[in-house]
Structures are given as C-alpha cells and as structure tokens.
Write a structure and sequence with these properties.
This protein is mostly helical. The chain has helices spanning 3-33, 38-71. It is built from two helices and no strands. The chain is elongated, with a radius of gyration of 19 Å. It starts with a helix and ends in a 6-residue tail after the last helix.
C-alpha cells in the first residue's frame, strides 16, 4: 500500500475521532451550561467543517506533488 493510501486511511480515523470527541465534549458543555443538546450539535458540525477543509488542503497538496512529478523529466537514455 502506498503512503497516500495510508494518509487517507488516517484521515478517516480522524473524522471518527472528531465526531466522537465533538459529541462527548459538547455533551459535557451542554450539561455544564444547560444548552439542551445544542453544544454537541454545533461543536460536531464545526469540527466536521474543519476536517473537510483539512481534507481539501491535503488533496491539493497531493495534486501539486503529482503534477510536479509528472513535469520532471524522466531518465535519459
């Protein structure tokens, strides 16, 4: 398996961890401030949006690396 595949597998685990963390931290904030469930919802949404921006950043980085590899001249005979 190449390194790019492992990176994207890790990104999937990041999403799961962010959703779970957002839920549990948001639940704690809901109980502490009495927000009736809105803290967990909004925190999870904010974390998912930030994860999506991180995903776009990585995709652009890999695209730039691939384009720079394609433009470099190959071995000369």
């Amino acid at each position: 398996m190449n390194s790019k595949g492992i990176v994207f597998l890790g990104i999937g685990f990041e999403l799961v961890a962010l959703c779970a963390g957002g839920y549990f931290i948001g639940d704690f904030l809901d109980k502490h401030y009495g927000w009736n469930g809105t803290g967990a919802t909004y925190l999870t949404l904010v974390l998912m949006i930030s994860w999506f921006m991180h995903l776009i950043y990585l995709l652009r980085k890999f695209e730039r690396e691939e384009n720079s590899d394609d433009s470099s001249p190959g071995p000369q005979p």
